[in-house]
Design goal:
Rossmann fold, 44% helix, elongated, 341 residues, single chain, alpha/beta
Length: 341
């Protein structure tokens, strides 16, 4: 325990001073009474309560003074407090195949709308991150409770060309709490093959998987993968990091034929890869962003309550306990002696 105003602890000296003063007062009263009668007569005239009964209210008052004196120093302690430990990264496919209109108004806009719905459905204490993926994965927002930053990042999304589902998953895993330190070698090998691994920070210990908070990734994609790291290797890395992947397929079976830049093209939809990724990580696959079951999963992902030690000023606790001791002492005095000192 630490104290914001440690000098105020000097007020604790009031406790022994008051105790000595009370003892002196008792002796003075007894001597004054003995002047008017001899000892045998005094014992018959005055009925004295037991010593413990006289002492209990006084002890309550002294404890109250002690607690108030410590509270004046504004003590700070690391208390275990309930916190929402949930961290979720939304990974959105920004490849050109997301222009498909088989999901109204388009696959891309449906993904953004679903991301907004998720941010609205979960508690504000849930940390949400945002990653996009096309040729490579891009982190737009690390997991945060800042909903304004999330909305602004979502508005900046732009469609690009190829699709690398694996890169999107790996970048999402990397920004989840504790995962980069735990999986740094594998993440580096898959994201930046052929480049040397930077030295680890000796001041940052490698965490244990069981000590990391639960984390999830929600992937919005049409499932087409034609570039970058193997998505199944990426899913295995996520699994080894204790990260579940929930995949949402955006498209219709067989895809859709539409005009893109003056040409008639087939915009494919390949959900099988998304289904396998979700299965590998003990997550789930959803065939639609408007699936009612998906909305229930949103609520589960958004709240993982755990206990963390947080530095908190505890003067209010001492004041509350002191008030209880004061009330107890006063109540016992009224019951036993018909008075409150």
């Amino acid at each position: 325990m630490e104290f914001t105003w440690p000098l105020m602890l000097s007020a604790v000296l009031l406790v022994p001073i008051l105790a000595i003063g009370y003892r002196w007062l008792l002796l003075r009263q007894r001597r004054a009474a003995e002047r008017f009668a001899d000892a045998p007569l005094f014992a018959r005239l005055v009925v004295r309560p037991p010593a413990w009964q006289r002492a209990v209210p006084v002890v309550c008052y002294l404890v109250t003074v002690l607690l108030l004196a410590v509270a004046l120093a504004r003590p700070v302690a690391a208390l275990p407090l309930p916190v929402n430990r949930a961290a979720v990264v939304i990974a959105i496919d920004t490849s050109k195949s997301m222009v498909g209109t088989d999901v109204a108004p388009s696959r891309f806009e449906a993904a953004k709308a679903a991301a907004r719905a998720f941010a609205s459905a979960v508690p504000r204490t849930t940390r949400i991150g945002l990653v996009t993926f096309s040729e490579y994965g891009t982190v737009l927002l690390v997991p945060s409770t800042d909903r304004t930053a999330f909305a602004e990042a979502l508005e900046r999304l732009q469609l690009q060309s190829a699709t690398s589902v694996g890169a999107g998953i790996l970048e999402a895993v990397r920004v989840l709490p504790g995962r980069e330190a735990l999986l740094r070698e594998r993440l580096h090998r898959l994201l930046r093959p052929g480049t040397p691994l930077p030295p680890a920070n000796p001041l940052e210990p490698v965490p244990r998987l069981e000590d990391l908070p639960p984390a999830s990734i929600i992937v919005f994609s049409d499932g087409v993968d034609n570039f970058g790291p193997n998505p199944y290797e990426a899913a295995q890395v996520a699994r080894d990091g204790g990260v579940r992947i929930y995949a949402v397929g955006l498209g219709t079976p067989g895809g859709v034929v539409m005009q893109v830049e003056g040409q008639t093209v087939l915009v494919p939809f390949e959900p099988s890869g998304l289904q396998r990724i979700a299965q590998m990580t003990d997550g789930r696959y959803f065939p639609s962003a408007s699936d009612e079951e998906l909305r229930r999963v949103y609520q589960q992902l958004g709240r993982v309550i755990g206990w963390e030690r947080t530095r908190t000023e505890v003067a209010f606790l001492l004041l509350g306990v002191g008030g209880l001791f004061l009330l107890t002492g006063g109540t016992l005095s009224m019951i036993w002696f018909r008075r409150v000192p």
